[in-house]
Each structure stands twice: as C-alpha cells, then as structure tokens.
Design goal:
Layout lengths: L1 H17 L14 H6 L1 E5 L6 H12 L7 E5 L4 H10 L5 E5 L1 H9 L5 H4 E17 L12 E3 L6 H11 L4 E3 L4 H9 L5 E6 L4 H4 L8 E3 L12 E7 L12 E14 L6 H15 L1 H4 L24 H9 L12 H10 L10 H17 L2
Parallel strand pairs: 1-2, 1-3, 5-6, 5-7
Antiparallel strand pairs: 3-10, 4-7, 4-8, 4-10, 9-10
C-alpha cells in the first residue's frame, strides 16, 4: 500500500513538474503556449448522429491555420444545454443552438435579458420539429392530458414552446432519453414523441411501424408560432414508414444558428472569435462543397435572425464584403410573416397551404433581390 501510494504520489508530482506554468519558457520545438491558446476557439456541437457534430469537424479541418487559428469541436447535449454552456462555461466560445431554445432557456431559467447575453454569427440550417403520435391522436389538441416524450437535448424546447403558445397542456416526460422514449411510445407506454432534428433522421426513418400504429402529427403554421418557426412538410418519400403514400404532413422548423457569448469588443475572446468569423465567412464556399456535410449548403451568411443581434465582427464582415450571398434560398420568420400579411393569409392554414405559401415567398424574395 505504501509503495502504491508512493508511486501514485510520485506520478502526480512528475505530472505537475512536466506541465509548465503559464508564461513558462518553450518546451523543445513545441509551439509557444500563449500563441497557441490565443489562436484556439471552441465550438460546442451535439451528440454524434446529426449534422452538428459533423459540421464541427468540418470547421476544424477547413478553417485550420496552424497557430493562427485552430477550431476545437466539443460534443454537447443539444441546443438548450449548448446555450447554457455558452453563457456559463469558461472554455466555450460558441455553439450550435436552435432558435426555440432561446425562449426555452429564457423561461425555464428565468433569464429575461438572455438576448443581450449572446449574439449570433450566422444562421446555418433548419431543424424540423417531428411529432410522432399514436394513430388515435389526430391533432395537437388531442395531446391535452396525454403523455409526451420530449427529452431535453432534442425535443423539450420545441415541445414547451409550441404547447405553451397553442395552449396545450400535456404530461411531458423530459427525463427518458430519446431512444428510450421512442421505444416506450412504440411499446404503448405513451402517446407521442417529439424531436427537433434534421429531416431523414435515422432514428425516425428506422421506425418499423408495423400495422401503421404511429404517424407524424401535423403542426399548423399558426400565427403565434410565426416569429420563431417557418413552415415545412414531411412527405411519404422522406418517411414512407410514417406518412401515407402520396401525401404530405404539415410541420414547422426552427433555425439553427452559430451562437456566441456577447464578448466585450476590446477583449481577447472577442478578437479570437473575430478571427474565426473571418475564416468561416471567407471559406464558406469550401464548406458548402463536397465532401463536407450537405447542410452547409443551407447556410446563408446574410440571413437575419429575428429577435437577435448579430455578433459585431460578423456584421462588420458582411457590411464590408463586396458581394454577400443572396438570402433568396432561405427566409426568416419576420419577412415571411410580412409576406403573409400582404396577402391577407389566414392565421391557421390548411394542409399544404403553408408549404405552398412558403414556396411563393421564396419566389417573391428572389424577385426583390433582382431589382
């Protein structure tokens, strides 16, 4: 025991001696410690399996510039926790966050000024809200009083935001992990399961759904959702296991943005992030080309995010660029709502109307861009 303790103590002491203090002289041919740290940024992504973790690795590979810039991706626990980590953890510079997580964290953690604590760098892509329900559940209103699985990392922000705004009071289980919650729904131990993920998500496409006991539940593009969400649809081609052949299901999608803490402009963390922004924006076309994740092609650097302020270095880059990417391939809730108002669209739209109107909106936006 004494020998073991002695060895352990000796090992710990050796480790302490091997690790130099900040500002110490260089070690052999290793890079300078201060230069290396000043050029490194961290980005928190999401669990392996979705686009976020792959896109984080893409940035690490494409934006690498030796000691000048190094991107360290970190696997996170989803949008809500990523936002909390950006605000609270010392070593997190930025992260992937869905916009509905902003309202969720603001409400759940009582942070009324949360929009002033963070900034966004760019809108990246959309996360589609999937609500898988038992066949007997035909509308969102049918979920009142029912058991719904919505785990915090992928479903709870969307579930609480949509349910709260539409006045639906469901019994939400946010503790059971996503895979376990889905299995319980399949086994008949719940009524619905919610996940805000990209289309064609393997966990959803892999549902066998024997006998058609489950289906994707429609989410109407209600006016009370339009400041956060955009309309989308799920087709039978995308989910043949959950959507009847030749039909589509209305749904909504939240924007996923690259979010950063609101660093003071004269701080080292601000300068470090500004250097990252220059590299990201300057190499966006490389990221949007194979073999990088196809979700990069949905990224429109100039697209605004309603209710949020862009990181100043990012806005400065866009203002100073001679040519920025057109937002014609994307949209934002504020612009889309203006389009609906001009056409006197109804607050609640029937199936397929929201998707058709959104397509018309993109055509309208393109016509404005070419004037």
């Amino acid at each position: 025991m004494l020998a073991a303790a002695s060895l352990a103590g000796g090992s710990a002491q050796a480790q302490q001696q091997a690790r130099p203090a900040a500002g110490a002289a260089k070690i052999g041919d290793l890079p300078d410690r201060e230069s290396l740290n000043s050029g490194t940024v961290t980005v928190i992504t999401a669990p392996i399996g979705g686009p976020m973790s792959v896109m984080g690795s893409d940035m690490a590979a494409v934006l690498d510039d030796g000691e000048n810039l190094r991107v360290l991706p970190i696997l996170g626990k989803g949008s809500a926790q990523n936002l909390v980590d950006i605000i609270m953890l010392k070593n997190i510079d930025m992260g992937f966050v869905a916009t509905d997580a902003l309202e969720f964290v603001k409400t759940e953690y009582n942070i009324p000024d949360i929009a002033q604590r963070v900034r966004y760098i760019a809108k990246l892509f959309h996360n589609d809200v999937h609500i898988i329900a038992r066949r007997e559940i035909r509308s969102l209103e049918d979920l009142n009083g029912k058991r719904v699985f919505a785990e915090k990392s992928i479903g709870l922000p969307a579930a609480t935001t949509i349910f709260r705004r539409l006045g639906i009071r469901a019994d939400i289980d946010s503790v059971t992990d996503p895979t376990g919650g889905l299995q319980k729904l399949i086994d008949g131990q719940g009524d619905a399961w919610i996940a805000s993920v990209s289309k064609d998500a393997p966990i959803i496409k892999g549902i066998k759904n024997e006998g058609g006991r489950l289906h994707l539940l429609a989410v109407p593009y209600d006016r009370v959702l339009q400041d956060i969400y955009l309309p989308t649809t799920f087709s039978s081609e995308e989910y043949p296991n959950l959507v009847p052949p030749g039909t589509k299901v209305d749904a909504v999608a939240a924007s996923t943005v690259l979010m950063v803490y609101n660093w003071p402009e004269n701080s080292e963390r601000y300068r470090r992030t500004a250097r990252f922004v220059d590299a990201l924006f300057g190499k966006i076309q490389v990221l949007q080309s194979p073999p990088r994740h196809p979700k990069w092609r949905d990224t429109v650097l100039s697209a605004p995010v309603q209710g949020m302020i862009r990181f100043k270095a990012a806005q400065d880059w866009l203002d100073g660029a001679r040519a920025v990417q057109s937002p014609a391939s994307d949209g934002n809730p504020a612009e889309f709502r203006k389009f609906l108002d001009e056409r006197k669209a109804q607050a609640r739209m029937s199936p397929d109307e929201a998707a058709k109107l959104y397509s018309d909106f993109l055509k309208w936006q393109r016509s404005r861009e070419t004037r």
